[in-house]
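Example for tutorial group B:
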C-alpha cells in the first residue's frame, strides 16, 4: 500500500492546482494531432548556429567563469546591455540597481508574489488572462478580481469601477497584473491612451502594476506602443521581459525592471529560491546582444510569424462557419476564437481530439472559471504552415458539427456584447 502524506502538506500547497493547459497538452502529444494548444516558439526560429558559435567562444575563452556560480542580481555585462537596449528600444530608464535577471519571467511572477502577496490579498487581472500569472498568485493564496477586455485590451473605466466598488466594501488591491501588448491569450494590445488612464487609476489608489511583456518585439503590423514602464512617472510599474521568445525558452533567462527598493527586496527573495540564474545562459544572452545578433534575428522571427498568422487568419475566414469570430493580432503568438453561445469548447474538445486537432479551452484563462465557455486560444507560431491550414479546416468542421448538435438546445446568455471579449 502506498502511503499518502497529503495531510502534511502546508495550507498553501493544499490550494495549489495543476495547470489546466499542462493537463490538456498531455492529450495532444500523439503525432497525428495538429496542436494549436501550446504557447511554443517555432523551433526553426532558434538561432542554433549563432548559439553554437557563441558557446564555442565562451567555453574557449571564459570557460571557468561562465560555468561558475554567479551573483543573484545577474551577470553585470548582461544587465548593462539590457539597460542600454531597453532605453534605446522601449524608452525605459534603468541601470544596474533596477535590473534583476530571473529564471524565466515565471520566476519574476513568483518572486513578486512572495514579496507582495499576503493570504487573501486581491489581485486585479484581465479576463481572460495568462494562466501562469494567476497560478503564481493563487499559490500565495491571493484572490483574483477580473476586468473585461475588448479589442483594445483592458477597459480603464471598468477597471476604475471595479476598484472603487471593492473600496466601498472595505477591500483594496495592491496590484494589477497586465500583458498590455499582444496579450496572452487574446492577442490584443492596449492603446497608449488606455495605458495612461490605467496608470492614473493605479496612482489614485496607490497600487502597483506588473507589466508582463514577452511579445512586444514580435510586432508584424502597426506602430509600436510605448510600454507602461516607459509611461510610468512614479516607479509603480514592475516590468518583466524575456529571452524565451527572441532567443530560446530553454535558457530560462529573463529580467525584471523595478525601483531600487523593490528590486533589492526581490533579489533577497531570489536568494532563497535558486541563488542565481543559469550563469552560462546569461553569458550567451549577453553575447547575443553584444554581437548585434538579436536585432537581426528578431527581423527573421517577425517575418516567419507574420506569415503563419496570415495563413491562420485566412484559414479562419475560409473554414469557420457563420457566427464564429476571432481577434486579429498585430503580433505575438495567439489568436482568440469565439464560437456561437450554445457551443461549449470544453465539451467540444474531445471531438476535436477525435478529429486530430487541439486548442486550449477558453475557461482555462478565467481565474474564477466564470467566462470563456464558448472561446478558445489558438497558437500560430509552432505548427508548420501546412498544418495550420489543415488544422483550421478540421477545427472548422468540428465547430460546424457542434453548432448543429447544439442548435436545438437552450442557449446561454452571450457576453460578447459591446465589443467585450468573453464567453458564455
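The residue assignment follows.
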Amino acid at each position: 500500500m502506498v502511503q499518502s502524506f497529503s495531510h502534511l502538506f502546508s495550507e498553501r500547497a493544499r490550494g495549489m492546482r495543476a495547470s489546466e493547459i499542462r493537463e490538456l497538452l498531455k492529450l495532444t502529444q500523439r503525432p497525428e494531432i495538429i496542436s494549436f494548444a501550446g504557447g511554443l516558439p517555432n523551433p526553426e526560429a532558434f538561432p542554433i548556429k549563432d548559439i553554437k558559435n557563441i558557446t564555442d567562444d565562451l567555453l574557449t575563452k571564459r570557460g571557468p567563469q561562465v560555468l561558475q556560480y554567479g551573483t543573484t542580481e545577474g551577470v553585470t555585462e548582461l544587465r548593462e546591455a539590457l539597460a542600454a537596449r531597453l532605453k534605446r528600444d522601449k524608452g525605459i530608464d534603468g541601470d544596474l540597481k533596477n535590473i534583476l535577471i530571473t529564471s524565466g519571467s515565471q520566476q519574476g511572477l513568483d518572486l513578486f508574489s512572495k514579496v507582495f502577496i499576503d493570504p487573501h490579498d486581491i489581485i486585479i487581472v484581465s479576463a481572460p488572462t495568462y494562466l501562469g500569472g494567476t497560478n503564481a498568485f493563487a499559490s500565495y493564496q491571493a484572490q483574483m478580481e477580473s476586468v473585461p477586455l475588448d479589442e483594445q485590451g483592458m477597459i480603464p473605466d471598468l477597471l476604475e469601477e471595479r476598484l472603487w466598488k471593492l473600496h466601498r466594501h472595505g477591500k483594496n488591491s495592491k496590484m494589477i497584473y497586465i500583458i498590455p501588448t499582444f496579450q496572452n491569450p487574446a492577442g490584443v494590445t492596449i492603446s497608449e491612451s488606455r495605458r495612461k488612464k490605467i496608470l492614473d487609476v493605479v496612482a489614485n489608489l496607490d497600487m502597483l502594476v506588473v507589466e508582463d511583456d514577452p511579445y512586444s518585439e514580435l510586432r508584424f503590423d502597426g506602430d509600436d506602443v510605448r510600454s507602461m514602464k516607459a509611461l510610468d512617472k512614479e516607479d509603480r510599474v514592475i516590468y518583466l521581459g524575456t529571452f524565451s521568445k527572441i532567443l530560446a525558452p530553454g535558457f530560462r533567462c529573463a529580467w525584471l525592471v523595478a525601483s531600487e527598493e523593490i528590486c533589492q527586496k526581490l533579489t533577497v527573495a531570489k536568494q532563497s529560491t535558486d541563488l542565481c540564474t543559469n550563469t552560462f545562459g546569461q553569458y550567451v544572452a549577453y553575447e547575443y546582444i553584444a554581437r548585434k545578433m538579436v536585432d537581426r534575428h528578431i527581423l527573421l522571427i517577425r517575418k516567419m510569424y507574420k506569415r503563419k498568422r496570415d495563413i491562420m487568419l485566412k484559414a479562419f475566414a475560409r473554414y469557420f462557419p457563420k457566427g464564429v469570430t476571432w481577434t486579429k493580432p498585430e503580433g505575438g503568438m495567439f489568436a482568440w476564437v469565439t464560437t456561437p453561445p450554445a457551443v461549449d469548447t470544453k465539451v467540444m474538445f474531445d471531438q476535436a481530439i477525435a478529429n486530430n486537432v487541439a486548442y486550449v479551452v477558453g475557461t482555462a484563462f478565467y481565474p474564477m472559471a466564470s467566462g470563456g465557455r464558448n472561446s478558445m486560444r489558438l497558437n500560430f507560431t509552432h505548427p508548420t504552415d501546412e498544418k495550420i491550414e489543415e488544422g483550421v479546416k478540421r477545427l472548422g468542421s468540428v465547430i460546424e458539427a457542434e453548432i448543429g448538435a447544439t442548435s436545438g438546445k437552450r442557449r446561454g446568455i452571450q457576453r460578447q456584447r459591446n465589443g467585450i471579449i468573453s464567453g458564455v
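Confidence is low (pLDDT under 50) at residues 410-419. Compare this with the pattern of hydrophobic and polar residues in the output above.
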